[in-house]
Amino acid sequence: MAAAKIDFWFTMGSTYSFLSVMRLAELQQSTGVTFQWRPFHLLVILQEMNHVPFADKPAKLAYMWRDIERRASVQGIAARLPAPYPVKSSIRANLVATVGMREGWGPDFVRAAYRRWFQLGQEAGSEPNLSGSLRDIGQDEARVLALADSEDAMAALVAETDAARALGIFGSPTFTVDREVFWGDDRLEDAINWRRSHSIKPN
Amino acid sequence: MAAAKIDFWFTMGSTYSFLSVMRLAELQQSTGVTFQWRPFHLLVILQEMNHVPFADKPAKLAYMWRDIERRASVQGIAARLPAPYPVKSSIRANLVATVGMREGWGPDFVRAAYRRWFQLGQEAGSEPNLSGSLRDIGQDEARVLALADSEDAMAALVAETDAARALGIFGSPTFTVDREVFWGDDRLEDAINWRRSHSIKPN
């Protein structure tokens, strides 16, 4: 039988993804569900939809920060808000995350980058966040950035973005259980309950 | 000491508000918190923001129906989805609701209208939903529609819409505890917890 698995789709310019990034490791331990971290480039899908979630909507943006602040507080996650937003170069961070997922240190990098973004005020995808996050997790900056800038990494990120679009994904974080889609950190528990109550398909 | 009260802001073209409308009475009983129902005309605020939440975004719209279906199912609320959307004349339903709140039968009307919309497929704000919902709750259709079409009702609805905007409200349903804003049926429990853990201001 296949292991109980949930796909965790995220893009590194996403603010609400912070909440999921910071609690997935603990949830994996407490629930026994495995999360597969899948970075994708949401910005392309948002542009296709002609959709700007927050940045051009002041009331919604102000609410977003307050909502994240309250939820981080309830979850015991430290945060200094508002963090820089919107980020100028989420693609760079998504490419590094893509390399990291292949090499096994991806979740550590993503956590380090979100810590720097949401706790130190260093914008994700730009310096000093990129190099600093790689240093934090003991990865060689020059080697990793060369891989992130390769056509190979870009092709992998495009393929994952295509896979996200094909599932109907339009936001980050999104959790999928087979083809069932759950959008938002506030649907994470629903995704886990769904995974538990629906039979695992044999490989 | 003032009673524990949460303001429930809603507009009758809103799909997610269905979930809150159908469970507030029970929650009021089980929690002891009083909900003050406050219809407002969200469409004006959305137009000011240049924001269309779902209707022009097919992937987000498809997800919305699936999400509402799952949540209604968990909450034990019957629904035949998708319901007609977007509605052509939410203002008419909001005006009737405004009259109803003044006269005391507002919540009954709103529940009847959502039942017809989400269970019988009758679009909110249009016929036969409007007249049928008034009949369902024993109100005289001619009398109420005349009041709903009065300048008085329109002024009251505009005033409530202004009050919503001033609080930073940009969606429906929204719950407010004093000036603390909780957006979405999925923040209803957070609003109740907030109400319970923050002291009531004396009148």
Short key terms for the protein model shown above:
homodimer, 203 residues, alpha+beta, Glutaredoxin, 9 helices, 10% strand
Structure write-up:
2 copies of one chain form a homodimer. Chain A has 203 residues and is an alpha+beta fold. Chain A has one domain (5-197): 3-Layer(aba) Sandwich (Glutaredoxin), CATH 3.40.30.10. The first copy, chain A, contains 9 helices and 4 strands, in the order βαβαααααααββα. Chain A has helices spanning 17-31, 42-49, 58-75, 90-103, 106-119, 129-136, 141-148, 151-167, 188-197, and strands at 5-10, 34-39, 174-177, 180-183. In chain A, β3 and β4 (180-183) form a beta hairpin. The longest helix of chain A has 18 residues, at 58-75. The A-B interface holds A 49-51, 56-57, 59-60, 62-63, 66-67, 70, 165, 168-171, 181, 183, 186-187, 190 and B 49-51, 56-57, 59-60, 62-63, 66-67, 70, 165, 168-171, 181, 183, 186-187, 190.
Number of domains of chain A: 1
- Quaternary status: homodimer
Give the biggest sheet of chain A.
Answer: 4 strands, mixed
Instruction: Based on Cα principal axes, name the global outline of chain A.
Output: globular
CATH structural architecture of chain A: 3-Layer(aba) Sandwich
- Kindly identify the CATH topology of chain A: Glutaredoxin
Biggest β-sheet: strands ordered side by side in the sheet of chain A: 2-1-3-4
Tell me the number of helical segments of chain A per DSSP (H or I, 4 or more residues long): 9
Order of helices and strands of chain A: EHEHHHHHHHEEH
The rounded distance between the terminal residues' Cα atoms of chain A is 7 Å
Mean pLDDT of chain A: 95
Q: In terms of per-residue confidence, which ranges of chain A show pLDDT below 50 for 5 or more consecutive residues?
A: none
Number of strands of chain A: 4
